[in-house]
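[09:14] KT: can someone run the structure on this one? pasting the chain below
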Amino acid sequence: MKNIISKVLVAAAIIVGASSTSSFAQATATASASANIITPITIALVTNMNFGNIAVSPSSGGTVVLAPAGTRTFTGGVTLPATTGTVAAANFTVSGASGYTYAITLPTTATLSDGSSHTMGMSAFTSSPSGTGVLTGGSQTLTVGATLTVSAAQAPNAYTSSSAVPVTVNYN
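[09:31] RB: done, structure tokens below
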């Protein structure tokens, strides 16, 4: 009987020893986590857009194209008098993390009104830089122009945008 008990104990020890070696098939590693908060992107208006003085034919309308550089061209029955008035592309300062790129979103249309029943439409907005910009040194100047559509015999008056003309920037 002692011999059988000894054999059972030896067999049990071998089984326990064999099963403990299988625990070496597992390994663990650790990692750390980090984050870097960058400067938020901002846009600030420097100068409002102004198409300046415009003359229009009583029988034919046309357009005035204000380039981001602040230059104007015209088509159709529109002319640009020698007394230009104030002419300026919209000018913004975009600021944020140095070296980062950002996307520029321009409106598709906007309306100018004289506060009465007379309006003119703006469209074909363009910018410099166009589409994307780079925050070299943490800031960049963004200029915006557009095309103004003037009707034949447009009523003489001072016209302003009837609502805000949004220019949106965001990090790429």
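[09:33] KT: thanks! The helical segments are 2-20.
[09:34] RB: yep, looked fine to me
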